[in-house]
Write a structure and sequence with these properties.
By secondary structure, this protein is α/β, with parallel strands linked by helices. The protein is built from eleven helices and eleven strands. A hairpin with a 4-residue loop joins strand 1 and strand 2. The site of 5'-O-[(R)-(carboxyoxy)(hydroxy)phosphoryl]adenosine has 17 residues, from helix 5 and helix 6.
Length: 379
């Protein structure tokens, strides 16, 4: 089954064609990220206008692998080559969501193809079901036997995901834990009560002077950190909120305040310049350690509560190399399997929207499909 999916929940305009929920046939993304740089965050009005500009070019480019010679009858192309349509309906920015939703409804109206509404946050985890050369079904422990079942999604090393799985979705707007008992059966276990992990990376990155380069900038700076005995660095530990609490909730809003306080203290007390690269690197290192410590600990708590067989990581923060490394270290002597998508499929795209639609979506009469900016993930 071939699904054409559209994603437009924030500042990316994306479309993809995916076969049977796992095989990418076409994948295109346009982003307005750099346009928001001078405001220090996404400007919804600007994002929506850019969605409008990019939607048709991204869609036509996505369909181009199916185009024969000069034919540009896209309606006919969809009728001939696509079985169903999928679109992100929420959560996200209303102006951005509307562009994708209205485009998808128009295509459904013009072609008569079924339309599947998709929850963006739940869909992130289905990036783990995609087969690509880059796909990393990374961690398999000796002694673990797998039976191959073609009904089950597999990642590139052909090992099917084993259930129950604990799925951690960590993006710019969400930090959520789910129990996945099958590709269809999901239960929400907990999430952030304030800022998301990605938001914590983004806000603290701005404090360190990295503009809107967020988690990637923190990761790069952290890798430059060299622990030394001289005092040109942060030596205090930042808070790891809710680390020892029984709940599976997260809280990251205190991190920004703690970084501000420590930054002021260290630079004033030691008369250090705030563009001292070692000082910045030490802060970046500790920020990354604090966030990833909490993410790993809470995920492992969920694993033991539900006797899970695998862990699935997804969302933009799942691109973080230190987070992946910590999971590998933690799982070193266990029998759990760890899955994470290639970096290009961690951040927003339409591939996982199509995959979710295939494994878990239900078609809805296109008249009834609506943008839902506050769509809940607590299922
Ligand atoms: O999933 P995503 O592309 O968009 C949302 O749905 O929110 O996630 C974007 C988030 C941003 O907060 C960004 O800073 C973070 O993912 N991110 C990272 C890394 N790459 C992207 N955070 C930490 N380390 C990274 N390497
Ligand atoms: Zn996302």
């Amino acid at each position: 089954m071939r699904i054409l999916a559209i994603e437009s929940s924030c500042d990316e305009t994306a479309a993809a064609i995916v076969e049977d929920g796992t095989l990418i046939r076409s994948n295109n993304i346009a982003t307005s990220t750099t346009m928001h740089a001078k405001w220090g965050g996404v400007v919804p009005e600007v994002a929506a206008r850019e969605q409008l500009k990019s939607m048709i070019p991204v869609l036509t480019e996505t369909l181009s692998p199916f185009q024969s010679q000069q034919k540009t009858d896209y309606r006919q192309l969809i009728i001939d080559h696509i079985d169903a349509l999928a679109v992100t309906v929420g959560p996200g920015l209303i102006g951005s969501l509307l562009m994708g939703v209205e485009a998808a409804k128009t295509i459904a109206f013009a072609t008569g193809k079924p339309l599947i509404p998709v929850n963006h946050v739940l869909a992130h985890m289905y990036a783990n079901f995609i087969e690509t050369d880059l796909s990393v079904a990374s961690y398999q422990l000796s002694g673990k036997k797998h039976t191959t079942n073609n009904q089950q999604p597999t990642t590139n090393n052909r090992q099917p995901i084993t259930y129950p799985a604990i799925s951690l979705v960590v993006s710019g707007g969400h930090t959520e834990l789910f129990l996945m008992q099958s590709p269809k059966k999901l239960t929400w276990l907990g999430g952030t009560i304030d800022d998301a992990a990605g938001e914590a990376f983004d806000k603290t990155a701005r404090l360190l002077g990295f503009g809107n380069r967020g988690g990637v900038a923190i990761q790069e700076a952290a890798s430059q950190h060299i622990p030394t005995t001289n005092n040109q660095q942060l030596t205090t530990k930042l808070p790891r909120p809710l680390l020892y609490e029984d709940s599976l909730n997260f809280s990251f809003s205190g991190l920004k305040t703690a970084v501000m306080r420590e930054w002021k203290k260290v630079s004033e007390n030691q008369h250090l310049s705030t563009n001292n690269s070692q000082l910045i690197a030490s802060f970046a290192y500790e920020i990354q350690e604090a966030i990833t410590d909490v993410l790993v600990a809470k995920t492992m708590k969920a694993v033991s509560m539900h006797n899970a067989q695998s862990i699935l990581l997804s969302g933009g923060v799942a691109a973080n190399l230190r987070l992946r490394e910590k999971f590998h270290q933690t799982l070193n002597s266990s029998r759990l399997a760890l899955y994470y998508p290639p970096i290009s499929l961690c951040t927003d795209n339409a591939v996982y929207i199509a995959s979710y639609a295939y494994f878990r979506g239900e078609p809805v009469d296109w008249h009834a499909v609506e943008a839902q900016p506050d769509l809940s993930v607590e299922i």
